[in-house]
Automatic annotation (TrEMBL):
PANTHER family for the chain: RHODANESE-LIKE DOMAIN-CONTAINING PROTEIN 14, CHLOROPLASTIC, RHODANESE-LIKE DOMAIN-CONTAINING PROTEIN 14, CHLOROPLASTIC-RELATED
Example of a GO cellular component annotation carried by this entry: chloroplast
Gene3D superfamilies linked to this entry: Rhodanese-like domain
Protein known as: Rhodanese domain-containing protein
One Pfam family of this chain: Rhodanese
Source organism of the structure: Picea sitchensis
Amino acid sequence: MVTTALCQPCLFLPCQYHFSISKPYVASKNASSAFYTSGLCFTVKRRSGHLSTVISAATKTAKSPAEEEWKIKRQLLLNKKVRSVEVNEAFRLQKENGYVILDVRREGEFKDYHPKGAINVEIYRLIRDWTAWDIARRAAFAFFGIFSGTEENPQFLEDVRSKLGKNSKIIVACSAGGTMKPTPNLPEGQQSRSLIAAYLLALDGYTTLLYLEGGLYAWNKAGLPVEYAEE
């Protein structure tokens, strides 16, 4: 397959230089299978009688375990016998068998509502810093109409370790849940925040892991107990 790198500009700054940030992707020659990569591309052009490209550089950083291909994550989870649990069964396990619900949504989502007794460690958090790289990522999110851009929480495992020992029995939960079950349209299932979190926890040595089928949407829809963070 012949591939061609393409870019779409997403930020322009009015100054001496024309500075654009773009999200590179690769498409097949017939453009039938385009996909985005995880890097951003910076292009700087000097404003003059004609524009000439001065800088064009990819900013791809080293891949973290959370960015591993889904099929690799899925295979490890299957090997570790991580499975889904339906919401009513999860509620029973929480009450009767000492399971802890680990809500990996963002802190703001957790405060809106969460299963009673759940603890929160966000796997992705709002972008916090204001380095050139962070500004670029904010701009990339804004280009797609997303003004609350997120980044991987680098303290995720450290925060979990401070709250839950390696022998803890954990049900990982996020909004939608994801699935490892194959379907005609998704032969490898579909990853989610909870499945990414379960993968990281399995790599870190946690051995009793389940993930909430249907996520917290299903929990809420079933009318199971929820609580709200105090202001």
